[in-house]
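Protein modeling request. Please complete all fields; requests missing the sequence field cannot be processed.
Requester role: graduate student
Desired output: 3D structure, token encoding
Chains: 1
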Amino acid sequence: MKRLLNPWWAVLTVLLMTFVRYEDGFFVETARLKSFDYTISQAPTFKSDAIAVLDIGEDALKEKGQWPWKRDELANIISGLRDAGAGVIVLNLLFPEEDRLGGDDVFVSWLEDNFVLGTQVASTKSLDTKGKEASVAVVGGDPDDIINWIPEYQGMVSNINPINDALAGVGVVSVMPEIDGVTRRIPMLTRVGKKMYPALALETLRVAAQDDLYQAKIGESGVIAVRVPNYDTIYTDTYSRVWINWANEFDRYNYTSELDLSVFKDKIVIVGLTAEGLSTTIATGVGTVDNHILQANLLQSIIDGNTPVRPDIADFGELIATFVIGLLIVILFRFVGVMWMIIPIVLLTSGVVYGTKYAFATELFLIDVSWLLATIIIVSLHSAFAKFMLEFLLKQQIKKQFGTYLSPALVEKLQKNPELLQLGGESKELSIMFTDVRGFTAISEHYGEDVQGLTKIMNRYMTAMTKRILDNDGTVDKYIGDAQMAFWNAPVDDDDHAYKAVKTGIDMIKDLEKFNEEVVTEGVPPFAMGLGINTDTVVIGNMGSDQRFDYTCLGDGVNLGARIEGQTKTYGVDIIIGENTMKAIETDFNFTTLQLDCIAVKGKTKGVDIYTVVEGEWGKKFNHDDMMRMYFEQNFKGATKMCESLKGYFDGQLDGFYDIWIERCKGMKVKKDWDGVYRPTTK
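Delivered output (683 residues):
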């Protein structure tokens, strides 16, 4: 399971997302185009004063009859527009055949010298091309190279020759849908063979400028821009296509004989069919649009210089951003918690979206962040899931490993902060406690063959003692028969570990008194307990084999704790602590520490001072200290008298020790080479 949650899988996800973006397949391109639809739709609307649209719709057909009309009727419309002061008139209509009702002569006469444009349609079929070609001046490369970049068709459907000859210009109104069937870009130039044809918008500008040719700039990767003299450069993509900006509004009128044509004064007029069944509708990023409305939007965008632009470096930049940002998220998830990652992800996503909007608002740049956002979401979800599961598994591992010998509060703290736990071993100062039941033989004999009874009473005892350890933030290391080992300051740091260990020991003695009150009523012999506590730097961590291991500690400090516990009976006290433990708590008014001896425990030649501890502050501690000073100075009689005077003090907790000490002093003789170290024969 952990292998599947390895962070390298998230890196692989980043690489996969980057590769998919590099391949730029259907889904990637579709997502990009949809994002562009949204970006462009958010552009502020601009009302055009240069263009007006004249729709031939249902009202016109009711008045003039069914389509096609006699062409002299269209001549009347042209005449009326010209008389009203209209500028260039664009007929988004096709006349591929002679007028069956006559009227071509009148129509042609009104086309001549009146700045009227017509249309032609590119075809995928091989047709006899009679359309008007474009005269293109190529800049920046070999003129023959432009043929390799502009879209090619098999044929062109144009108007009959008399009409084409009379028109001031003829432009192509064919569209090139994107991969999803939606039209968003229009090629400024198309070709049939080596013949090039201008788009209607481009041809309109040429006629308006009264010029004879276009300029096209090309580079190594294709077309860069096209231009009509007296107008701004039109930047295109490699294939001469221009993005349509739909943020244009212009006046639209339905044609009837009652329409006041003066509204078209000084405007480019685009005439098109809107009647049902006659209009040519096109799917766009903003819905279905009549072809002449599409042309009007494109023309207006070009005139205003607000055609969206896709920077040449955009693809490369988006690819790099996908990889870098995706990898950044993976790295952040390694060091930041799942919940804390919400903030940078939200900020990152917002920054990407805002940056895209800003680039379009200021420079009309079309930047695709759809795949980048998808990468952010997918990689974030992958990383979050992996991190969550790893954290969950770690918490379960911590609970399994520490739940039985740590307090629930400490286990929860470890689960929330697993970095506190360093597995594998480290040197650390701990306070280690050993306990042992005294008189276990009597208890065992009481139960005789009742093994279950003995087990139950020992479990009750261990449960009570363990609870006290856990309540004071200790860690239960192990149980060895009727003995118990615990320590403080691991796996969670605790600056008060010595104090808590000693307090726990005193509390355990009190708990044992209550425990005995219960068991004695049951006829069970009372329990007695010895405690040894030592503070020292030891090795703590997971110890054992691959098959089984325990979280435990090792070192001389651990051995000393076990040895001094074994001396509690020797000195007639319940608790013995080491010198380091004494130093850690000697200034604490909650305890009074009293030296018991200087002993060389089994396996050691050098003596160590050992102490006992009683709860509270006691004034005669100094008397006890004087007694011990007399003893080490070999003033055994003085020490004996002092012991006798101290009996009954300290609530009688040291009376057993003073009796033992009196007996020891009686047998002591002054020696010149005496070092004061007692060397017990027991452990």
